[in-house]
Amino acid sequence: MERYKEIIRDLTLNLLSLDLSEAKRRMDTVDSNHLLNLDIPANTTLTPLINGFEATKQTQFSTRNQSSTSLTHLKQLNSTKRSVLSEEIGRIDDKISSLERVKKELQKSLIRSREFDLELTDKLSQNPFTQFNTFLPDEHDELPINLPFMSIQVDPTSLNDLAIDRPYGTLITASDNACPRLWNLSTGEEITQLVGHTDSITSVQFNDSSIITASKDCNMKIWNKSDHTAELTYSGHTKPIDIIQASNDQLVSGASDQTVRLWDLNSGQCNLTMDLLSYLDKPHSHLQSQSPYIGGLQFYYNALVTGSADSIIRLWDMRTGVPHRNLVGHSQAISCLSFDQYHVISGSDDGNVNIWDIRTGKVLDSLQFNSPVTDLQFDNRKIMIGGVNSGLALYNRVSRQIEELASESTVTSLEYIDSYMVTGSSNGEVKCWAI
User: Fold this and answer.
1) What keywords sit in the KW lines (predicted)?
2) 297-319: pLDDT as tens digits
């Protein structure tokens, strides 16, 4: 019995081994085509799985082919799009460049329009008599702009100051000579000399029917404009008089004795003395002997502005004789200044021109040069600046551009009339310019 069982077991194992080997051989010969050709019963649970696999395989292959074609097409389209965008950007750049050129031209036109408007404002604000300057050419536009059209050698020494009697074209010059000289600007000929001072003339001015002169001899004289005779002598300063300004019946003088005095032109009396030494924060001994000590001075009614060797600009109330504001910003002596209802413009030995807001006391703008500023005047359009790099400069207040004008010698003083400027130089020469 036991022997029988062993024979049955051996036969079973051999048969299983043969079946497995045959099954393996047949499986090795089966591929996907065989599977597709097999008759699979409809009710088998493997039918959806097999059919789904084959469908997905074909779809993926087809999709790969389609995707490759689409990507190539999209790449071509994107390349075309880049070219179109580049061309459009180029056209826009050209338009921007064209618009920038148009903008610059419009800006220039706007500046010219502003300048013309300011010119009209200046003319409307002038005294009607100043529009009839007989010594000036009738046609300004025919003259070379920013170039001298007339030159007169008036003195062998440097000119300290000059002034013009505007309606009549009479020029007065001040130099180290003790005699101020009168000139006819229409002919360039000397009219006369005013004899009476004993030292250099520092400041001159026309005022109505008189001429006012100041000297290092510490005196001021009032001269008759018609017969050129001395009518009054004002004495009181103890050191050379640096600068004067007259208006109507008042005269203000600043001197190296560190005082500013207010005079009555009718009586010749000094009505007020303002002592700068009293208002120095830190008195400097080296400044006390400096001449000129008062470099700039201007007044309008009761408002007075002075600039001195201590580099400070002071705003005074002449009703009280007390400064109510100091403008601090320069580093060296103030050499000149001028003001209107909004601004004080000052020049200094430090080479700077400062434009101050008269209401806040702050510097709105500052122009830097390489040499001391000797004189300046301004209107709504321009600032005329003497001494700049030993010459002359014009600052356009609208375009904020600086133009330097050629000069053979340092401009020491200047006078601005309408669209004309008269300058005096260190070589004793006077020039007339169309500005």
Assistant:
1) Repeat, WD repeat
2) 999 999 999 999 999 999 999 99
Nearest to 344 by CA among 307, 293, 392: 307
pLDDT of residue 146: 85
Give the C-alpha separation, 398 to 409, whole Å: 28
Q: Is the pLDDT of residue 381 over 90?
A: no
Q: Quick one: which of 51, 33, 34 has its CA closest to 42?
A: 51
Q: Domain residues of the chain, as ranges?
A: 47-125, 130-434
Query: What size, in residues, is the chain?
Result: 435
The side-by-side arrangement of strands in the sheet containing 312-317 is 294-300, 303-308, 312-317, 322-328
Secondary structure class of 222 (helix, strand, coil)? strand
Separation of alpha carbons 418 and 435, rounded Å = 9
Question: What would the two tokens of residue 325 be?
Answer: 């504001």
What DSSP line would sit under 332-372, residue for residue?
S-EEEEEE-SSEEEEEETTSEEEEEETTT--EEEEEE-SS-
- Give the side-chain half-sphere CA count within 13 A for 293: 24
Q: Tell me, what amino acid is at 136? A: L
Enumerate the β-bridge partners of residue 382. Answer: 396
Angle at 248 (CA atoms; ends 416, 210), nearest 5 degrees: 75
Distance of alpha carbon 174 from the chain centroid: 34
Cis status of the peptide bond prior to 292, with omega within 30 of 0: yes
Q: How many CB atoms lie within 10 A of CB 315?
A: 18
The CATH superfamily holding the domain 130-434 is: YVTN repeat-like/Quinoprotein amine dehydrogenase (2.130.10.10)
Q: Look up the pTM and report it.
A: 0.70
Cβ atoms 159, 173 nearer than 8 A: yes
Q: What is the pLDDT of residues 4-41, one digit of tens each?
A: 556 555 555 554 455 545 545 555 554 545 544 545 45
Whether 326 has a pLDDT exceeding 70, the answer reads: yes
Owner of token pair 């013309």:
116
pLDDT tens for each residue of 255-298: 999 999 999 998 889 999 999 888 776 555 455 556 689 999 99
